[in-house]
Amino acid sequence: MRVMIGKRIGSAFTSLLLQVLVVAVCGQNTSRTTLAPLPAPLGVPKPGPSNDAPYAPLPILPGGVVVTLYPPGSPFLKMDRVREAEQYNMSQSVPGRINSIVNIHNPSIEVHTVDRGLNTGAAVILVPGGGHNTLNVGGEGADFVPFFYNHGVNTIILRNRLRRDGYNPQTDEVYDAQQSIRLVRAHAREWNIDPNKIGIMGFSAGAELASATAVLFDDFDKKNSDPGDPLAGISSRPDFVGIIYPGPTPFARDRFAPPIPRNVPPAFIASAGSDDQVHAIWADEYFAAMLALRVPNVEMHIYANGRHPGDLLRDGSHMTGGLTDRNGIPFGTWQFRFIDWFRDLGFLQQPGVETKAAKDISFFLSQPAPAPKGSTPNTPPHTP
Asked: Which residues make Cβ contacts (< 8 Å) with residue 41, sequence separation at least 6?
């Protein structure tokens, strides 16, 4: 009996003690000072103001040097729209991240250079995609600056005009890409860039422009050789070209294929395959055109598993592009295959050293041109 009474008293005491502790804890919680509100994000980029002068584009990343492609009054510009400000589409979840830009009427380049100790002198001009309706400067532009920096490669982001704003992709937009190459080459010394290691890489709609620069540079340079042009005499030929999940290249079946210059630059091509069939076909058409001419150092990767950026996925989200990991599939590593190719061709050597790419092109130019289709070849066919 005494034991049971003792147990009851002990149990009641324990229960009372727990209640006291709960009250004490609750009292502490109710008296705790509320956390201060979080500060607003700092350094969020904004478009420049619109005034009576031509619009002056601002950098989208810290440290970017922005140079407009054409001088004021250039016939390439629409005088009635050149004062309009660009419009930024900001990320809803990442403060300060610009996903895309529209309303580009004073096209420009944004230059991000590499420290001298790391600098290879190579420079890649990035042409973001967006279906000519927007310019995806986040995933297909800004994200590449630190990636290429780590390999000693200077990065330039092109902000070209768009079809949605009244411009022709096959003329106005291509001119912007070609002019960007001339402009970077003109300032190569100031930016510690090797003028023989300047190339261009485009994504989707941007790859349309990049592929056009690879074959149409002679015509552009001849048309823009007036002595009054400050860039007259500076070549728009890229030293290499990256064609990533491209839109229709100059060799698409519904286009009149231009003649391919013998000194066409080496190309790296990448795309998803059957799940992005149309872009894979456009990639293959460019590759086939180069292969028919036996152009050296053209490499293509068509991945079995992958989708085009912007495609709607089963979970309702949209496929992203650029450097996206893509859930670990091989297509998410195409950029490392590009670096392998880039290194193999000598672009990651010290500035001023002739690249393997340049040597191979010189040798290619010294050889007889392949016989046209339907004619008797100069060499006997290979027999196994």
From this structure: 95, 96
Do 253 and 278 form a contact (C-beta atoms < 8 A)? no
In a domain, 94, yes or no: no
Closest CA to 226 of 66, 76, 108: 76
Query: Is 268 contained in some domain?
Result: yes
Domain membership of residue 193 (yes or no) is yes
The answer to whether 339 and 333 have CB atoms below 8 angstroms apart is no
Span 239-261, average pLDDT: 94
Q: E-strand spans in 11-116?
A: 65-68, 87-90, 98-102, 108-112
**φ and ψ of 334, to 5 deg:** -55, -35
Give the number of domains in the chain.
1
Q: Which CATH number do you get for residue 318?
A: 3.40.50.1820
Flag whether pLDDT at 350 surpasses 90: yes
Angle, in degrees to the nearest 10, between helices 174-186 and 205-215: 60
Structural domain of 141: 103-366
**Which conformational region is residue 130 in: left (phi greater than 0), alpha (psi within -120 to 50 degrees), or beta?**
left
Question: How confident is the model at residue 381, as a pLDDT?
Answer: 41
Whole-number Å distance between alpha carbons of 208 and 176: 12
pLDDT 10s digits, 38-84: 999 998 999 999 999 999 999 999 999 999 999 999 999 999 999 99
Q: Which of 21-30, 102-111, 262-271 has the lowest mean pLDDT?
A: 21-30
Q: Note the pLDDT of residue 228.
A: 86
In-domain check, residue 138: yes
